[in-house]
Structures
1.
Amino acid sequence: MSLMLKKDTTTTIMQLRRISLLILLLTGLALPAVCYADDGISISTEISKAAIPYEGKDTLTVSLTWAGEPFLYQIDDFPMPSLEKLQILGSSTSVSSAGDSTVESGTTTTRTYRYILQPTDYGTGVIEPLDITAKNRVSNESHELKTGRLTIEIAKPVPVEPQGSGGLGIIILAIALVMIFGAGAAIFVRVRRKQRESLNVVVDGHYCEALEAIKKEAVADRKLFYSRVYRLLLNFLEKERSLDVSGKTGEEIVATVQGIEDETERRHITQWLRQAQKIKYQPESPSPGDVENSYDEIHKFFENKQKAT
């Protein structure tokens, strides 16, 4: 009988803990530390294969594990690793829980991020350490988590030997490839010129109006919004700051921005350029709140610049 009474008491206590946590999240009231035990949060990484062919793919898995319900920790950003000789083909995230919050052992939650990687060169591919911030919604404490540096050995590309000995066929194929490449390059140049002309007509020094048009077009689509904002920022750098950003990579552009004397302007533009680059690889997810917040911040920036001139 005493064993049954102890079990019932434990179950009741765990149920009260769960109800108290939900009340805290919904109302923002402070909970005594005794109501929920924060056992901490850990991070782990794994690659499916340590060595891959140049034509192959690999999977990077990053897992965050904590004792408690899925909503216990707030993790705002989808982490994107910095890579060498590798690129991200796709990414996904999932959350799973095991255990029972009504018993003393409680629930264990795992949030998993998966990245499909593809080689861009042979040799040693590098996955730089990831920095992730997880905030405990109960204690308001932030945990700075960091992964280790990982490497993947990438084999040399397999040479493709032409079949048969038909020299004429090879010549014809080469000519066709040159013609296709030339036509593609001409189309690309025309499209880029039209994009620049279109953006110049829209902007014409009125960046706030251009930003409003971008917001109307994107609605809640973060990827579309930031891709347009990225072009708008490049236009601003070229026209207003006389910086050469044409044909440069994202990191080269960020390095060029460091030449701006105004520290606040330099910091804001660097942040927005990197945000646009990061969101380009994230999964599709409508986010009207993010678009609205980013729009307000960038609009205020351009508004102040136009007033100053």
2.
Amino acid sequence: MWQISEEVKIKADAAAVGQSTDTISHNLESLTSELVHKANVKDICNLLDQKANVEDINKVLVELHKEIDAKAAIGSYQEQA
């Protein structure tokens, strides 16, 4: 009887270990998935740091506007001549 009781305990412990292993595997997969997403957030932050700011865009637009005005003025002058 004592031997049967010990075998039942061992089997119960093996089942608990199996269940714990499954839980650990699931948690590890979840953690891996979260880390992949966090790496993407880091990449996005780096990209945002490299983007042009409003002042740079406005400066380029002003320069383009000046060039367009100059070309339009030259075109008007040539049409009048």
3.
Amino acid sequence: MMKYQVYYGIIGHLEQRTLRKEDILAESDNYLLYFECESVSLYIKNKKIPSISVGDHYGNPKTGLISKNEDYLISGGCGINLAFIENIYNDGYRYDCAYEGFLNTPENIWWVKRVFQVNADSNEFFRFHCANNDYDLAEYSFNAITKEIKLIEVIEKFTGDNAL
């Protein structure tokens, strides 16, 4: 089983933590997206700085994505969190990153099972599979720049007999 070492804590007081492979949501050349309990964090590889909080999900995140050109990251579970890597900042005490949550309010919860990018799509688009408000399992396209969500296809229509 592969293990990853990441840093946590505050600037000047770093400690290392070992992650298990199943804690990893996504990995790219320069970044590692992982979760612990309901919190999602981004680790910048080859830098000795603490991991950066980039969201949280009720009931733990289920999936993650770092965009093809490493501009943004997505985590999914109870809704979707979107964070742009350019929004990482250092307040002198710790690193942080602003993120936006979608489809995760009590009156509009979508349970995201998978996020991914399709080679035919441009970088600003990603797709996700989820159970929507009607409990249908469906594939959607999400534009990370405009925040527009479009239905691609219903994979399985909820009938009451096929509850998730």
